[in-house]
Amino acid sequence: MKRIGFIGLGIMGKPMAINLIKSGYDLVVYNRSQASVQELSKQGVEVAFSPMDVAKKVDVLITMLPNGPEVKEVLLGDNGAIYGLSKGKMVIDMSSISPVTTKKIASILAKKGIRMMDAPVSGGETRAIDGTLSIMVGAYKEDFSNYYDLLSAMGSNVTLVGEIGSGNVAKLVNQSIVAVNIAVVSEAFLLGAKCEVNPESIYEAIHSGLAGSNALQSKFPLMMEGNFEPGFTLELHRKDLKNILETAQSLDVKMPLTKMVTEFIEKLISDGEADKDHSAILKYYEKISSFNLV
Amino acid sequence: MKRIGFIGLGIMGKPMAINLIKSGYDLVVYNRSQASVQELSKQGVEVAFSPMDVAKKVDVLITMLPNGPEVKEVLLGDNGAIYGLSKGKMVIDMSSISPVTTKKIASILAKKGIRMMDAPVSGGETRAIDGTLSIMVGAYKEDFSNYYDLLSAMGSNVTLVGEIGSGNVAKLVNQSIVAVNIAVVSEAFLLGAKCEVNPESIYEAIHSGLAGSNALQSKFPLMMEGNFEPGFTLELHRKDLKNILETAQSLDVKMPLTKMVTEFIEKLISDGEADKDHSAILKYYEKISSFNLV
């Protein structure tokens, strides 16, 4: 079996790497922070000293990093993976980054004959642990087929979207819809509560109709509990939203709703709520209307 | 079996009345436009000459009208139903109107000992025909129990939300979410298309995740076909949105997303799109970004 490199053992990356180990893959890992590295080291995983060092030892390199600049640094920077990868090797970037950045990196790697696919995920920490992430893949069909089993060790819904960069395009579309769907749930239910109608009763009446959504179903109960433990943080959602708005601006696409919700999230973050779950968008609404849902 | 009055035989009202007939109810109808009246008359339904005339002949009066002013006129205006209803009779207003208006009307009727419940619906013409509407009820519990079977002849999901007016509160919450969810699907998928990724592939990758919604599932295929036949018209959605914003303003609740999408719909209507399905919000985005989804 091929050796797999894994760089980026954060909240998402660590459980994803563990699922690869459980599926019998032979891992070499690198991570800036050492706590996760030591945990995986105890499970018999080889620890490398730099991205280049990982790259030299593996056939496939997976990266799971916060954003585009980190992916560029790890792949193309000093001691970057590009200096350890030889022709025909594969980079699978599972980070959520701008598809423009993905394409730039892929074209640089391609000059050395290194293949790349983007495979950002959705589903959050719980589904990363369960190995049931949705994985949106931008790749050549042949590469997708070849690495389908590998990706399936981390996710239950692995979809080829299109060419390289398409995975991140799907992720941007996803994150725009999620942010706005959560925001309007907050906005609308706050009106209902201010009308002195029990939000749970409204939920019962509408959740199976056209207003129904996975955001409503999964976030409404947390809003009612005032439980804003992540989940997926406002900080990370802001990062995705900024990638969306930059991409949209570069293509002259207008995204007024996404822009508006990004501003709400920025205000929340400047109020110290960065580490809350994105369902805490409710708190922005509670503030501007001086009224609480519960 | 009680005699049922039915006023308002429009796109929704007519199939709802027909479902009552099919369930064996004895109907007396009134409608300003005569085409629907004649159709129901052929089915053996009694036709009355005014709302008052209907009211005199029935135990329960159902109204299904475009908006608050029409409901007020029919119930409280010249030859209005109030002059034909006696103590203990029941008015079920199934129109989607402002809950503030609902409460005002209910309190006027209550002075004559006439009971009222609000029971606005969602699901559109198709589900009105199928008798599978969602019906959101604001009523005393006892009244809800007494008229549950009657309502169930028109809908498959009949929910008691709370006191009188609560049905329309739930409907407002519903319509705000629906409008914004449709709008952000348009906004986000247009970005995806501009990135030269096939929208159908993006849909496949994201529709079962947190971005999934009933609006996405039911409207995305129509958007891809460019099929904007209603369904539910932009004109009617604007009416609901104006009721939402008026209610919100009167209660000092801020609804920035709902307000923004209302403005999009108003621009579409001033461009002559009033009779299109609300999924035609896509056309607003296509215009401002000078780019078409398909």
From TrEMBL, chains A, B:
Keyword field contains NAD: yes
Active site: K171
GO MF term set: 2-hydroxy-3-oxopropionate reductase activity; NAD binding; NADP binding
Listed PROSITE patterns: 3_HYDROXYISOBUT_DH
Alphabetical UniProt keywords: NAD, Oxidoreductase
InterPro entries in the cross-refs: 3-OH-isobutyrate_DH-rel_CS, 6-PGluconate_DH-like_C_sf, 6PGD_dom2, 6PGDH_NADP-bd, HIBADH-like_NADP-bd, HIBADH-related, NAD(P)-bd_dom_sf, Tartro_sem_red
Pfam families the UniProt entry points to: NAD_binding_11 (PF14833), NAD_binding_2 (PF03446)
GO biological process, one term: organic acid catabolic process
All copies of domain 6-phosphogluconate dehydrogenase NADP-binding, residue ranges: 3-162
Residue ranges of every copy of the 3-hydroxyisobutyrate dehydrogenase-like NAD-binding domain listed in the record: 165-285
PANTHER family membership: 2-HYDROXY-3-OXOPROPIONATE REDUCTASE, 3-HYDROXYISOBUTYRATE DEHYDROGENASE-LIKE 1, MITOCHONDRIAL-RELATED
Family note: Belongs to the HIBADH-related family.
NCBIfam families in the record: PRK11559.1, tartro_sem_red
Name of the protein in question: 2-hydroxy-3-oxopropionate reductase
Source organism (scientific name): Gracilibacillus dipsosauri
Organism lineage string: Bacteria, Bacillati, Bacillota, Bacilli, Bacillales
